Amino acid sequence: MGLDLAELFIDVEESFGVSLSETEAQSCDTVGDLVSCVQGKVAAKGRIPCPTGEAFRAITRTLVEEVGVPRKGLRPSTSLGHVLPWSGRRRAWRKAAKRLSREQYTLPGLRPIRGVSAAFQLMTFLAAFTYWLGPVPQPWPESGGARALLAPLAVVAGFVFSVKLFYRRFPEGCDTVGQLARRITPPPSEQVQPAVYRLVAERLGVPVEKLSPQTRLIDLAR
């Protein structure tokens, strides 16, 4: 066993508060094997690293590296509205979701502004329906075929536009960075895998997104 792998197993033992025998370590040929071994140990002991703390660190890395938020001042109590203002929020949220998904986290989507999006969609529908009925002045197209085509297109366009314009509220109960970390924390049965993946990535210098259960540890340590 190489030095890097030995240090990885030490990291795993310290992080999860478990002990891996030499036989167990040698049987962990792949990342999936290591995850299964640790899950068995954790289930027996009922101990895992603080999952919310892991999620908070993942969010912090994402905000700093992907969105460009200054690291100073990022705490669990920091308001999301302060670090992700209205302008550019949807784009920043998409980038954060993509990065977090590579770290085994699922970021919930933004919500619409209460009432405004629905009102805009209703007005679009009424305008399109009125046009479809016919009492509209020139220079609108007069053929029935054009009306039948343009009216539903107007409804779809209005819906898409309202989604882009008005879906900028944070998920329910996620007003701070800490609340968002608690929201994306996976259930206990799924908490071991992302933690092990991050340990493997940090110790062996491999991006998390390149790891899979079939990835051989000996190949990463070369």
Description:
The protein has eleven helices and two strands; from the N terminus they run ααααααβααβααα. With 222 residues, the protein is an all-alpha fold. It folds into three domains: 3-49 and 191-220, no CATH class; 51-110 and 170-184; 116-168. The protein has a two-stranded antiparallel sheet with strand order 1-2. Helix 3 (31-45) crosses helix 10 and helix 7 (116-133) packs antiparallel against helix 8 (144-166). The longest helix is centred in the C-terminal third of the chain and has 23 residues, at 144-166. 24% of the residues are buried. The model has no long low-confidence stretch (mean pLDDT 81).
Summarize the structure.
With 222 residues, the protein is mainly alpha-helical. The protein has helices at residues 3-16, 22-27, 31-45, 51-67, 80-83, 89-102, 116-133, 144-166, 177-184, 192-204, 217-220; strands at 111-112, 167-169.
Class inferred from helices and paired strands: mainly alpha
Widest sheet: strand ordering: 1-2
Beta content comes to: under 5%
Number of domains: 3
Q: Determine the number of helices (DSSP H or I, runs of at least 4 residues).
A: 11
Determine the fraction of residues in helical runs and give it as a percent range: 55-70%
As a whole number of angstroms, the C-alpha radius of gyration is 25 Å
Largest beta-sheet details = 2 strands, antiparallel
Throw out a few tags for this protein.
222 residues, 3 domains, 2 strands, 61% helix, elongated
Topology, pairings included?
Elements lengths: L2 H14 L5 H6 L3 H15 L5 H17 L12 H4 L5 H14 L8 E2 L3 H18 L10 H23 E3 L7 H8 L7 H13 L12 H4 L2
Antiparallel strand pairs: 1-2
Helix pairs in contact: 1-10, 3-10, 4-6, 4-9, 7-8
